[in-house]
Design a protein that fits this description.
This protein is α+β, with helices and mostly antiparallel strands and 262 residues long. The chain has 6 helices and 11 strands. Strands 1, 2, 3, 4, 5, 6, 7, 8, 9, 10 and 11 form an 11-stranded mixed sheet that branches.
């Protein structure tokens, strides 16, 4: 097995084969857009591992459903990290891709994320503004203060709001205090939310790459749950949302234990 693939599987955890190869759930589709839910553990686009990626899966699905000859055009407009589940938008025409990409550059596309992080986050809401540098050799991003940022860095901004706090009991029986955050991603740097929250002292549960030491053994507790944009042709405002996942630790916040205890 390729060394890069072994590293990926050890880092993210092996997903069930059927889950990885099932065509993602479609939230919306017309002649211009395709909106789907990317499963955790699936790449946004192909890489050297050769593992399943959502772009190739969707192209194959469109080709089969519509009996299209030749190559299928599908524009990748943004990415989600491999371990992250969430809403993704694809363009079905070049015109749509160009117009939505312009919205993204102008920061007119609103993307919201949910995360369960270690500890109690104070202040309960705020903005994180720092500088980031992508380390391609290690496949991670490093965070710097704006004052000490190297010239190659890029500004990274997000806003967060604490939705609740509770205790989670890990596999070793330790009780870990965790917080549920809603995050508005203002810029879209590689691994931005993961790296900034870790630097803030609140790594995301399950994110071993960015120093989660809670003992949580499941998938990273981060998902893209909402996207709002203008339709590239009609200019209609569109918003797509997905519910919070089932399973621990998400279920702790569904049971009314927010701001309480197990």
């Amino acid at each position: 097995m390729d060394a890069r693939r072994i590293k990926a599987l050890s880092e993210y955890g092996e997903k069930a084969v059927q889950d990885r190869l099932t065509v993602p759930e479609i939230l919306y589709e017309d002649n211009h857009l395709l909106v789907v839910i990317k499963p955790a553990g699936v790449l946004s686009q192909a890489d050297v591992t050769g593992d399943p990626d959502i772009l190739s899966m969707l192209k194959a699905d469109i080709k089969e459903r519509y009996s299209k000859p030749g190559n299928v055009y599908l524009g990748l407009l943004h990415r989600l990290d491999r371990p992250v589940r969430g809403v993704m938008i694809f363009a079905k025409t070049g015109k749509s891709a160009s117009r939505i990409s312009a919205q993204i550059r102008e920061r007119c596309v609103e993307k919201k994320y949910r995360a369960v992080v270690c500890g109690t986050v104070l202040p309960v809401e705020g903005e994180l503004c720092s500088a980031m540098v992508k380390d391609r050799e290690r496949n991670r991003s490093d965070v710097y203060s704006l004052e000490s940022a190297p010239e190659t860095s890029k500004e990274a901004i997000l806003r967060y709001e604490t939705l609740g706090n509770c205790f989670y009991t890990n596999g070793s029986g330790e009780r870990i205090e965790v917080s549920l955050l809603s995050i508005d991603l203002i810029t879209g740097r590689s691994h931005q939310i993961r790296a900034q929250l870790s630097d803030f002292g609140h790594p995301i549960l399950g994110d071993r790459k960015y120093h989660d030491s809670s003992g949580f053994r499941g998938d990273i507790c981060l998902e893209s749950y909402s996207i709002r944009l203008r339709h590239p042709i009609t200019n209609e405002t569109m918003e797509f949302n997905i519910p919070m996942p089932n399973g621990t630790p998400w279920s702790l916040f569904k049971k009314g234990s927010i701001n309480g205890r197990e």
